[in-house]
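dumping this here before i forget
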Amino acid sequence: MTAARTRQLPLDWPHRPSMAREDIVVGDSNRLAVAALDAWPNWPHPVLYVHGPAGSGKSHLGAAWRAISGAARFSPGDALPAERPFAVLLDDLDRAGHSEAEIFALLNAARLGGGTVLVTARRAPGELKLATPDLASRLRAATTFTLGQPDEALLSGVLAKLFADRQIELDVKLLELMTRRMERSLDAARALAEALDRETLATKRRPTRQLVLDLLARMDDNAGALS
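structure:
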Protein backbone atom coordinates (compact mmCIF):
# COMPACT_ATOMS: atom_id res chain seq x y z
CA MET A 1 0.00 0.00 0.00
CA THR A 2 1.37 3.36 -0.99
CA ALA A 3 1.77 5.77 1.86
CA ALA A 4 -0.24 8.97 1.51
CA ARG A 5 1.76 12.08 0.89
CA THR A 6 1.98 14.01 4.14
CA ARG A 7 1.61 17.74 4.39
CA GLN A 8 3.80 19.40 6.98
CA LEU A 9 2.92 22.64 8.72
CA PRO A 10 5.83 25.03 8.10
CA LEU A 11 7.08 27.12 10.97
CA ASP A 12 5.92 30.69 10.56
CA TRP A 13 9.34 32.33 10.45
CA PRO A 14 8.87 35.85 9.05
CA HIS A 15 10.76 36.48 5.82
CA ARG A 16 11.93 40.07 5.68
CA PRO A 17 12.84 41.11 2.15
CA SER A 18 15.81 43.40 1.84
CA MET A 19 14.86 47.02 1.17
CA ALA A 20 18.40 48.09 0.22
CA ARG A 21 19.13 50.14 -2.88
CA GLU A 22 20.87 47.25 -4.64
CA ASP A 23 17.70 45.18 -4.31
CA ILE A 24 15.54 47.62 -6.27
CA VAL A 25 14.71 46.11 -9.64
CA VAL A 26 14.68 48.95 -12.16
CA GLY A 27 12.17 49.12 -15.02
CA ASP A 28 10.37 51.70 -17.13
CA SER A 29 7.86 52.44 -14.36
CA ASN A 30 10.46 53.51 -11.77
CA ARG A 31 13.64 54.32 -13.71
CA LEU A 32 13.48 58.12 -13.32
CA ALA A 33 12.61 58.00 -9.62
CA VAL A 34 15.48 55.59 -8.90
CA ALA A 35 17.89 57.82 -10.83
CA ALA A 36 16.78 60.78 -8.71
CA LEU A 37 17.29 58.77 -5.54
CA ASP A 38 20.82 57.89 -6.70
CA ALA A 39 21.58 61.56 -7.34
CA TRP A 40 21.10 62.57 -3.70
CA PRO A 41 22.26 64.94 -2.23
CA ASN A 42 22.66 66.74 -5.54
CA TRP A 43 18.96 67.35 -6.06
CA PRO A 44 17.83 70.39 -8.07
CA HIS A 45 15.17 71.03 -5.41
CA PRO A 46 15.36 70.12 -1.70
CA VAL A 47 12.03 68.27 -1.84
CA LEU A 48 11.55 65.14 -3.97
CA TYR A 49 7.93 63.95 -4.32
CA VAL A 50 7.29 60.38 -5.51
CA HIS A 51 3.72 59.19 -6.02
CA GLY A 52 2.04 56.11 -7.38
CA PRO A 53 -0.59 53.47 -6.64
CA ALA A 54 -0.34 50.87 -3.90
CA GLY A 55 2.25 48.25 -4.75
CA SER A 56 4.27 50.46 -7.09
CA GLY A 57 7.40 50.45 -4.91
CA LYS A 58 7.20 53.72 -2.94
CA SER A 59 8.05 52.08 0.38
CA HIS A 60 11.10 50.35 -1.05
CA LEU A 61 12.36 53.61 -2.54
CA GLY A 62 11.84 55.38 0.77
CA ALA A 63 13.62 52.66 2.75
CA ALA A 64 16.51 52.59 0.28
CA TRP A 65 16.89 56.37 0.45
CA ARG A 66 16.93 56.27 4.24
CA ALA A 67 19.77 53.76 4.08
CA ILE A 68 21.70 55.96 1.64
CA SER A 69 21.10 59.29 3.38
CA GLY A 70 20.64 58.34 7.02
CA ALA A 71 17.26 60.09 6.85
CA ALA A 72 14.86 60.12 9.78
CA ARG A 73 11.25 59.08 9.29
CA PHE A 74 8.89 61.99 10.00
CA SER A 75 5.87 60.89 12.04
CA PRO A 76 2.78 62.92 12.99
CA GLY A 77 3.58 65.21 15.93
CA ASP A 78 7.35 65.17 15.37
CA ALA A 79 9.31 68.37 15.90
CA LEU A 80 11.57 69.70 13.16
CA PRO A 81 14.98 68.01 13.11
CA ALA A 82 17.51 69.89 15.23
CA GLU A 83 20.47 68.94 13.02
CA ARG A 84 21.29 70.89 9.88
CA PRO A 85 21.38 69.86 7.13
CA PHE A 86 18.75 67.22 7.79
CA ALA A 87 17.41 64.39 5.65
CA VAL A 88 13.82 63.36 6.31
CA LEU A 89 11.45 60.81 4.79
CA LEU A 90 7.80 61.91 4.82
CA ASP A 91 6.19 58.63 3.87
CA ASP A 92 2.60 58.05 2.76
CA LEU A 93 1.78 61.77 2.95
CA ASP A 94 -1.87 61.48 1.98
CA ARG A 95 -2.61 58.71 4.50
CA ALA A 96 -0.27 59.16 7.48
CA GLY A 97 -2.27 61.75 9.47
CA HIS A 98 0.14 64.69 9.50
CA SER A 99 -1.21 68.17 10.16
CA GLU A 100 -0.78 70.66 7.33
CA ALA A 101 1.09 72.99 9.70
CA GLU A 102 3.82 70.46 10.50
CA ILE A 103 4.20 69.43 6.86
CA PHE A 104 4.53 73.06 5.82
CA ALA A 105 7.10 73.75 8.56
CA LEU A 106 9.22 70.79 7.42
CA LEU A 107 9.09 71.69 3.72
CA ASN A 108 9.72 75.34 4.44
CA ALA A 109 12.79 74.49 6.54
CA ALA A 110 14.15 72.39 3.66
CA ARG A 111 13.43 75.18 1.18
CA LEU A 112 15.38 77.64 3.34
CA GLY A 113 18.45 75.43 3.15
CA GLY A 114 17.84 73.22 6.18
CA GLY A 115 18.01 69.91 4.38
CA THR A 116 16.29 67.50 2.00
CA VAL A 117 12.91 65.74 2.18
CA LEU A 118 11.64 62.73 0.27
CA VAL A 119 7.84 62.66 0.16
CA THR A 120 5.89 59.60 -0.94
CA ALA A 121 2.15 59.51 -1.58
CA ARG A 122 -0.49 57.78 -3.63
CA ARG A 123 -1.74 61.00 -5.17
CA ALA A 124 0.03 63.72 -7.13
CA PRO A 125 0.54 67.13 -5.45
CA GLY A 126 -2.23 68.72 -7.50
CA GLU A 127 -4.71 66.02 -6.44
CA LEU A 128 -4.31 66.63 -2.69
CA LYS A 129 -7.14 68.48 -0.95
CA LEU A 130 -5.25 71.02 1.11
CA ALA A 131 -6.58 73.98 3.07
CA THR A 132 -3.20 75.75 3.20
CA PRO A 133 -2.37 77.49 -0.11
CA ASP A 134 1.30 77.91 0.78
CA LEU A 135 1.63 74.18 1.47
CA ALA A 136 0.01 73.33 -1.84
CA SER A 137 2.46 75.69 -3.53
CA ARG A 138 5.47 74.09 -1.79
CA LEU A 139 4.40 70.62 -2.88
CA ARG A 140 3.73 71.66 -6.47
CA ALA A 141 7.23 73.18 -6.60
CA ALA A 142 8.89 69.91 -5.58
CA THR A 143 10.67 67.70 -8.09
CA THR A 144 7.96 65.12 -8.83
CA PHE A 145 8.12 61.58 -10.20
CA THR A 146 5.27 59.20 -10.93
CA LEU A 147 5.61 55.46 -10.34
CA GLY A 148 3.46 53.50 -12.76
CA GLN A 149 2.11 50.00 -12.41
CA PRO A 150 5.03 47.59 -12.98
CA ASP A 151 5.17 45.97 -16.42
CA GLU A 152 5.82 42.28 -17.04
CA ALA A 153 9.58 42.77 -17.29
CA LEU A 154 9.78 44.50 -13.90
CA LEU A 155 7.44 41.99 -12.25
CA SER A 156 9.50 39.14 -13.65
CA GLY A 157 12.71 40.63 -12.24
CA VAL A 158 11.12 41.24 -8.83
CA LEU A 159 9.67 37.71 -8.68
CA ALA A 160 12.99 36.17 -9.71
CA LYS A 161 14.72 38.00 -6.89
CA LEU A 162 12.05 37.13 -4.32
CA PHE A 163 12.31 33.44 -5.18
CA ALA A 164 16.10 33.53 -5.22
CA ASP A 165 16.03 35.09 -1.73
CA ARG A 166 13.94 32.12 -0.59
CA GLN A 167 16.16 29.61 -2.43
CA ILE A 168 13.25 28.48 -4.59
CA GLU A 169 14.22 27.20 -8.04
CA LEU A 170 11.57 28.29 -10.49
CA ASP A 171 11.18 27.24 -14.10
CA VAL A 172 11.22 30.17 -16.56
CA LYS A 173 7.83 29.11 -17.94
CA LEU A 174 6.29 29.29 -14.48
CA LEU A 175 7.74 32.76 -14.03
CA GLU A 176 6.22 33.83 -17.35
CA LEU A 177 2.87 32.34 -16.30
CA MET A 178 2.89 34.35 -13.08
CA THR A 179 3.75 37.66 -14.71
CA ARG A 180 1.04 37.21 -17.35
CA ARG A 181 -1.76 36.37 -14.94
CA MET A 182 -1.03 38.09 -11.64
CA GLU A 183 -2.13 41.51 -10.47
CA ARG A 184 0.38 44.14 -11.62
CA SER A 185 1.74 45.25 -8.29
CA LEU A 186 4.87 44.65 -6.26
CA ASP A 187 2.71 43.85 -3.23
CA ALA A 188 1.07 41.05 -5.22
CA ALA A 189 4.49 39.74 -6.24
CA ARG A 190 5.57 39.57 -2.59
CA ALA A 191 2.31 37.89 -1.58
CA LEU A 192 2.66 35.30 -4.34
CA ALA A 193 6.27 34.53 -3.39
CA GLU A 194 5.26 34.09 0.26
CA ALA A 195 2.34 31.82 -0.66
CA LEU A 196 4.45 29.64 -2.94
CA ASP A 197 7.19 29.44 -0.33
CA ARG A 198 4.65 28.22 2.24
CA GLU A 199 3.18 25.60 -0.08
CA THR A 200 6.53 24.18 -1.16
CA LEU A 201 7.71 24.00 2.47
CA ALA A 202 4.48 22.30 3.53
CA THR A 203 4.45 19.68 0.75
CA LYS A 204 8.21 19.31 0.19
CA ARG A 205 7.53 19.54 -3.54
CA ARG A 206 8.92 21.74 -6.25
CA PRO A 207 6.58 24.40 -7.71
CA THR A 208 4.29 23.15 -10.47
CA ARG A 209 2.06 24.86 -13.01
CA GLN A 210 -1.07 23.63 -11.22
CA LEU A 211 0.16 24.92 -7.87
CA VAL A 212 0.88 28.34 -9.36
CA LEU A 213 -2.57 28.47 -11.00
CA ASP A 214 -4.24 27.46 -7.72
CA LEU A 215 -2.39 30.17 -5.79
CA LEU A 216 -3.23 32.82 -8.38
CA ALA A 217 -6.91 31.82 -8.26
CA ARG A 218 -6.86 31.96 -4.46
CA MET A 219 -5.32 35.43 -4.54
CA ASP A 220 -7.96 36.59 -7.03
CA ASP A 221 -10.72 35.23 -4.77
CA ASN A 222 -9.25 37.00 -1.73
CA ALA A 223 -8.95 40.26 -3.65
CA GLY A 224 -12.57 39.95 -4.77
CA ALA A 225 -13.75 39.33 -1.23
CA LEU A 226 -12.00 42.48 -0.02
CA SER A 227 -13.26 44.76 -2.82
